[in-house]
């Protein structure tokens, strides 16, 4: 095993190549967050958690429609494209049907005929290892969308690109890095003592590492735009991956801070919207009208109430008489849930409306 400190000579390269594409990812994804905020701002959510739930529902609905269209397309063109040689029809349907899966595709590098044999023969094989490192930090259940990474390499230049689809456009958004003259980097490695074989290997390692860093940054940025409470994994992933690549940690820590700042900005925006809605609600209190009077069963008072997210059911915490659910419009008693001889004084629905939460 040879000394890998030669990577330290590439610190400037890290910034020159990845900084522009990181910034483009952040700007594009944050723009999607702002668009979705505008779409949902007129809705009925009153807190950040409800917004996050509504946003995830919006994305899932978009995914479901896209999956249906893709399955129709596959069914019509299956034999034409001979896809059965790659995946069975059932395997493909199962893959697409995972609405909570981010399908990350690393296309085999596009290599011109003049690329040296060491890269031409080995890089396509090494590309298959890119996801192995990501899987150590990102479980499949974290993923939610489709993004494709691809790399174009000539006999002296290289460019990193990614394309991703979103619910705001039918066309993918394409983001690319500046051109990297890898031949100059190769010559630099050669001058500091690496032989030809080691220098080519170092170039291939850089290409793999940069693709992994791009994928990690994209995943975190995308998920922060959906859920500001998402636990960032890019910092620990980058620290693990780049410890032999970067000596000056400040040049990567700035990206950690940018992601945290993005989280904080989103939380502030959501809190402002929630406060505005609360003020509007209080301002309209004099316009409220009594539509129905609901009588609970039992001898205990109502300690608290909760309204179902669909606005059609009301639940009341009635002490030792349990939780009682009523149809808001008809007043009909729908269900009584007892709490094992304990007094229930607090009740709430989760954001989906599928579960009741009580406090004693």
Tell me what you see in this structure.
InterPro entries: EF_Hand_1_Ca_BS (IPR018247), WD40/YVTN_repeat-like_dom_sf (IPR015943), WD40_repeat_dom_sf (IPR036322). This is WD40 repeat-containing protein. This protein is an alpha+beta fold and 360 residues long. The chain folds into 2 domains: 4-272, no CATH class; 304-359, no CATH class. It is 48% helix and 17% strand. It has 9 helices and 12 strands. The chain has helices at residues 11-40, 48-81, 89-97, 117-126, 130-135, 182-191, 196-226, 234-242, 250-283; strands at 103-106, 110-111, 146-153, 157-166, 169-176, 180-181, 304-307, 313-317, 323-327, 333-337, 346-349, 356-359. The strands form 3 sheets. Strands 1, 2, 3, 4, 5 and 6 form a 6-stranded mixed sheet that branches. A 4-stranded antiparallel sheet has the order 7-8-9-10, with no helix packed on it. A two-stranded antiparallel sheet has the order 11-12. Helix 4 (117-126) runs parallel beside helix 7. The relative contact order is 0.11. Mean pLDDT is 74; it is low at 78-93, 95-101 and 141-145.
Give me a quick take on this structure.
This protein has 360 residues and is an alpha+beta fold.
Keywords:
360 residues, 6-stranded mixed β-sheet, 2 domains, WD40_repeat_dom_sf, alpha+beta, WD40 repeat-containing protein, 4-stranded antiparallel β-sheet
Question: Helices and strands in order, then pairings?
Answer:
Blueprint: H1 11-40, H2 48-81, H3 89-97, E1 103-106, E2 110-111, H4 117-126, H5 130-135, E3 146-153, E4 157-166, E5 169-176, E6 180-181, H6 182-191, H7 196-226, H8 234-242, H9 250-283, E7 304-307, E8 313-317, E9 323-327, E10 333-337, E11 346-349, E12 356-359
Parallel strand pairs: 1-3, 2-3
Antiparallel strand pairs: 3-4, 4-5, 4-6, 7-8, 8-9, 9-10, 11-12
Helix pairs in contact: 1-7, 1-9, 2-3, 4-7, 6-7, 7-8, 7-9, 8-9
InterPro entries: EF_Hand_1_Ca_BS, WD40/YVTN_repeat-like_dom_sf, WD40_repeat_dom_sf
Protein name: WD40 repeat-containing protein
Organism: Cyanobacterium aponinum (strain PCC 10605)
């Amino acid at each position: 095993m040879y000394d890998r400190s030669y990577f330290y000579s590439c610190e400037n390269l890290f910034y020159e190549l990845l900084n522009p594409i990181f910034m483009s990812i952040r700007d594009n994804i944050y723009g999607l967050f702002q668009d979705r905020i505008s779409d949902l701002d007129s809705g009925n959510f009153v807190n950040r958690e409800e917004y996050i739930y509504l946003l995830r529902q919006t994305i899932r609905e978009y995914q479901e429609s896209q999956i249906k269209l893709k399955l129709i397309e596959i069914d019509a063109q299956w034999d034409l494209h001979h896809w059965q040689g790659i995946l069975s029809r059932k395997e493909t349907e199962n893959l697409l049907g995972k609405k909570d899966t981010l399908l990350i595709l690393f296309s085999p590098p596009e290599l011109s005929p003049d690329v040296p044999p060491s890269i031409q023969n080995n890089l396509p094989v090494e590309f298959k290892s890119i996801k192995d490192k990501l899987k150590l930090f990102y479980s499949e259940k974290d993923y939610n969308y489709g993004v494709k990474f691809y790399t174009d390499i000539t006999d002296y230049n290289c460019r990193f690109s990614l394309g991703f689809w979103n619910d705001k456009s039918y066309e993918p958004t394409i983001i690319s890095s500046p051109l990297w003259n890898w031949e100059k980097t190769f010559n630099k490695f050669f001058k500091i003592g690496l032989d030809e074989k080691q220098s080519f290997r170092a170039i291939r390692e850089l290409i793999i590492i940069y693709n992994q860093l791009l994928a990690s940054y994209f995943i975190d940025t995308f998920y922060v735009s959906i859920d500001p409470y998402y636990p960032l994994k890019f910092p620990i992933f980058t620290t693990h991956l780049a410890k032999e690549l970067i000596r000056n940690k400040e040049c990567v820590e700035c990206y950690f801070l940018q992601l945290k700042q993005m989280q904080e900005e989103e939380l502030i925006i959501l809190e402002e919207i929630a406060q505005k809605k609360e003020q509007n609600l209080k301002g309209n209190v004099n316009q409220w009208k009594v539509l129905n009077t609901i009588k609970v069963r039992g001898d205990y008072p109502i300690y608290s109430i909760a309204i179902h997210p669909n606005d059609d059911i009301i639940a009341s915490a009635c002490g030792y008489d349990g939780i009682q659910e009523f149809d808001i419009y008809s007043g009909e008693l729908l269900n009584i849930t007892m709490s094992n001889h304990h007094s229930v004084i607090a009740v709430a629905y989760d954001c989906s409306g599928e579960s009741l939460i009580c406090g004693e």
